[in-house]
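Board notes (copied after class):
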Amino acid sequence: MIIGFGLLSVVLAGDLASGTPLARGMCLFISLFWAARLVVQFFVFDAKPYLKTTLLKAGYHGLTVVFIYITVIYALAAFLPA
């Protein structure tokens, strides 16, 4: 799924930004996927036992920021197309 989303985003970026109903629906779906992934991260999976080094903690928090960013960007593309 993640590789597919990435390929769609790179290869069909113009189409995803076009504002057509299909593009908006796809952007909304991708945004909901990442939002669900964040819910699992925050409320289901406890990563603390695995975050033993500073590098692992920094990577975990960095990826969290990236996942939030992706969720927001795709939601904006779904609701406020160009």
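Comment from the instructor: Helices lie at 2-11, 13-16, 21-43, 54-79. DSSP finds four helices and no strands in the chain.
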